[in-house]
Amino acid sequence: MSSQQSQQPYSCNPHITHQRKSSNLSQSRHQQQFSHNPPAGVTLEPVNSFTYTNPLSYESYSSCSFPLDSYIALPNTSEVEGPPGVNRAEDGDIKKTTSAQQAWLKSWIKSRNVKLEESVSKLPNITNTREQILQTHYLLQDMRLKLDKLKEIRETANEDEWGENIEGLENFKKTLESNLSCTTGQKYIEKIKIKLSKVRRHQKWRKKHIKKLQSVRDERQRRRETLHKTIDEWRTEWIAKELALKREQARKEEAEKRVQEAEAKKSEHKELIKLLEKVKKLRDLRRERLKREGFY
Fold first, then answer.
1. Within 10 A of 81 (CB to CB), how many other CB atoms are there?
2. What whole-number distance in Å separates Cα of residue 230 and Cα of residue 211?
3. Of 78, 72, 48, 191, nearest to 125 (Cα)?
4. For 188, phi and psi rounded to 5 degrees?
5. Could you report the per-residue pLDDT of 163-193, keeping only the tens digit for each?
6. Cβ atoms of residues 46 and 82 within 8 Å
7. pLDDT (tens digit, 9 = 90+) per residue, 181-225?
8. Residue 129 is inside which H or E element, if any?
9. Is the pTM of this model over 0.70?
10. Helix, strand, coil % in the chain, rounded to nearest 5
11. Rounded distance, CA 189 to CA 124, Å?
12. How far is CA 104 from each of CA 85, 110, 115, 227, rounded to the nearest angstrom?
């Protein structure tokens, strides 16, 4: 068994052959074997036995062959084609081809007349600029005072005192020059002009917007007052109509009451007349009886 494994280290026992049922093909093409080569660095373990889990007989598979005496062949990573824009090198590194895509994107943006947002330099703050100019003005005044003081002590000051004053003036001069270089540059002045124009435009727009809002509020107030006036007029008219209807209803009720009273009096008068007629009839009957009895 060991000699067979050394000769065929990856064989399946029992050996089963697979035969296709085709009359047009030759016997050599009936048998099909599946051989694969393993990738580099991959080893396969020898197969010593082959067990069926499905309860079928070997006779039904007498023509089947599944040789396991060869390696499984896997595709090489260098031969696999990657997604669009990605190339696989032989050493496994991925190289992205973005130049063509960037060129296509730029041409598409140009054809669509799309302007990309350019980096806009931040405009200076007006408040900070005003404070800086005011600080420069104060520094200039202090420097003038120091110059006047230096002129006064020019003949009486010693060398050390003179050097200290000159050093202080030089420091003032450097600070003043740095402030002036920041506030008197052409680009800075242009930015300040742009900022001031934007502020003025904003103030103008704000005034216009406030005026528009005020006109809208006035129009809304006018409409509200007109609506309230119309509602008040309608309410007054409705109340007057309601009062007129109530008065008319009261008059009708009063008339009906009077008619009912008159009808009641008339019915009472009729009853009295009927009673009088009955009394007269009774009197006549009594007279006739008395006549028959001979009293008359």
1. 8
2. 28
3. 191
4. -65, -40
5. 887 887 888 788 888 877 777 778 888 888 8
6. no
7. 777 778 888 888 888 899 999 999 999 999 999 999 999 999 999
8. helix 126-152
9. no
10. 65, 5, 35
11. 10
12. 13, 10, 16, 63
- Using CA atoms, how far apart are residues 135 and 183, in angstroms rounded to an integer? 11
The domain segmentation of the chain, as residue ranges, is 1-74, 126-220
Where do we find the tokens 């009451």? 257
Phi/psi at 65 (nearest 5 deg)? -140, 125
Strand blocks (E) in 50-111? 86-88, 94-96
Which tokens sit at 265?
Answer: 């009096």
Q: What angle do CA 251, 255, 256 make, to 5 degrees?
A: 115
Write a three-state SS string for 224-266.
HHHHHHHHHHHHHHHHHHHHHHHHHHHHHHHHHHHHHHHHHHH
Structure tokens at 66: 């599944």
CA angle in degrees (0–180, nearest 5) for 6-11-12: 140
Tokens of 54: 């499905």
